[in-house]
Amino acid sequence: MSGEGLKKAPGAWDCKAQIYAIPLYVDPAQADNFPAFAYPPLEGSSSFAKPQSGRPVGGLGQILIVRYSETPVGPYDELAILPGPFAYPGGEGQADGQSLRITRIYVSQRDTVWNGRLNWNIPKHLARFDFTDLPNNTIRLRVYPFDDGVPPESVDKEPSSRYLFQVTFKPVPYTPAFPATTSALSLLGMKPTIVQPPLPQGTTNELIGTDRFAKADFAATSWWTRVGWFDMNQADDDGKIPGEHENFWPGTKRWLFGARMDDAAFHITEGQYWKAGSE
Hints:
Layout: E1 13-26, H1 41-44, E2 55-56, E3 59-70, E4 76-82, E5 85-88, E6 97-100, E7 104-107, H2 110-120, E8 124-134, E9 138-145, E10 165-171, E11 178-181, E12 193-196, E13 213-231, E14 255-268, E15 272-274
Parallel strand pairs: 7-8
Antiparallel strand pairs: 1-3, 1-14, 2-5, 3-4, 4-7, 5-6, 8-9, 9-10, 10-13, 11-13, 12-13, 13-14, 13-15
Protein name: Acetoacetate decarboxylase
InterPro entries: ADC_dom_sf
């Protein structure tokens, strides 16, 4: 097992964070032609992205931006892409089913990369996060990955000069804050559970691989939640689109209505594990 020099923190985790939640609808027609950029390069070339690990079925998912102030491994920023539910194979007493899946995720420090991969099969990779405050309480984020858009000799050593993802959040003015919790996702047909397939081993210390499926429940609660608009346009300062799609995900509109949860309590359970097809 790798992870030398990294802080170890098995699940469950209780954290404090600011959470930006962006709805992401994936057309079921995309399930048979899923965009390659939904996965990091390492996982995209492995069984993680293959049908035997589960197929996307389309539906409502999320893009989450999380600014953790307290976790078992210290503060960090995170971008997580959950492109709707996936069908997954059971085994060892676990039935086949459907659940949300994190297919691509970036974080700003290495300790959480190792722990997220080992504890829950979350395919974390390192990135640089650039938050910029703009007028009218607006904030912009650009995420520069260490594993995409960089020369082969620099992979996982330094961030790309080209951002993978950009978003601007504009809160709706004069609207009061209100309490919110992820339990409300059930009203939208979303259960706050992830099922993650096994991960490949990477070339650096923190990129640990796994050999079994992992399942975990998560929950977030905030007494101070505000709604706002997310500008998904990916154009840079020169008007050029660095990625494949103008609004990041194919078919996504430029403006999406979502929420920011301030001073949120976030919990993720200890993982449940099984090997697919095993009795």
